[in-house]
Structures are given as C-alpha cells and as structure tokens.
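A quick aside before the break. I want you to see a complete sequence-to-structure record at least once, exactly as it would be stored in a machine-readable document. Don't worry about memorizing anything.
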Amino acid sequence: MTNQAAWASEIARKLLEVPLPRRWAHTQGVAAQARSLAPILGDDAELLEASAWLHDIGYSPYLIVSGFHPLDGARHLRDVEHAHDLLCRLVAHHSCAIFEARERGLAEELSREFVPAPPPLAKALIYCDMTTSPNGAPLSVEQRLAEIRARYGADHLVSRSIEIASPHLINAVQAVACAFAKAKVSQL
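That is the input. The structure line, written in tokens, reads:
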C-alpha cells in the first residue's frame, strides 16, 4: 500500500470500522477493486486507491452535516484533513453524485464547492464502487444497481437518483472493464 493509500485507509478505518462495519467492508472491497486497476492507471493508481478508501466517509456519524455523504466526506477531507483538491473532487462527485444532489436540492452547492474530477478517474472510481457489494464482494454493475434499489425502495430519492444515473454508471463500468481487458491482452 502506498503512503497516500495508507493515509486514506487509516482515515476511513477510524470513521467507518466501528460505527458502520458493513460500510467499512464495502470500502475495503472498493479499495481492492482500485488496486486491481493499477495496471491501466499509471501515475493515477495511488490517487484512485485513496479515493476508493475515502469515497464513503461522509456516512460516518461523526461527519454528517448536510446529510449527503459525498458532500460531507469531501468537506471533511478539504477542511479537516487538508487533502489534495483532486481527491476531494473525486469523493464529492463519486458515482454520479450530482444526480442525487439534484434530488436533495444540493447540486448548486456541490458544484460550487467541488468541480467534477476528470472523466477517466471518475469512471475508474465508478467502476470500483459499482462493482462492489455492501459486504465488499465483487458483483456486476447490474446486480449493484438492483441491490441499491432494493435496499432503499422504489420511492426513495436514492433509488430515483440511481435510476437516472444508471446509464452513466453502466457506461463507465463498461468503459473501464474494456480498457482493463485491452491492457491484459496487450501484456500477453
């Protein structure tokens, strides 16, 4: 584990392990997915792994302010941890968070405080998050989307947001999977 990833994993552990053990298991799985993408990320591999560790820290009961975990997590990273701007942006906008922000009336606030991350990194983080179950096991993006809808119920704003974001999430996962497959073939 790199220095930035070790730093990020320790922050996530402190904020999630005890109060939210299932979220902690998911986070560990997302970080494992990020490590698996290192061959196609080059210099960005460390940043992606750090963002994978930190993407859900805003769920921690110690950080809840707005009630929107991407925003609360990114603000903590920026204001308390003094994290790199791009890391904060990845956390703030992970997995098409802007769609849920719109449902919550927080889209303007999110966009004003955090510019979206570059698409290749944003897609890589989507891949990691959307191919990891709540318990940290790998699964397909379709299974993950179905699990989210089932967990929240059809009328919940998270389910509505996921429904709108689904084409973007699926396309991102497919693009990253394709790039990873091509990289594996070229190594043969």
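Two observations worth writing down. Residues 157-187 form the longest helix (31 residues). DSSP finds eleven helices and no strands in the chain. We'll return to this after the break.
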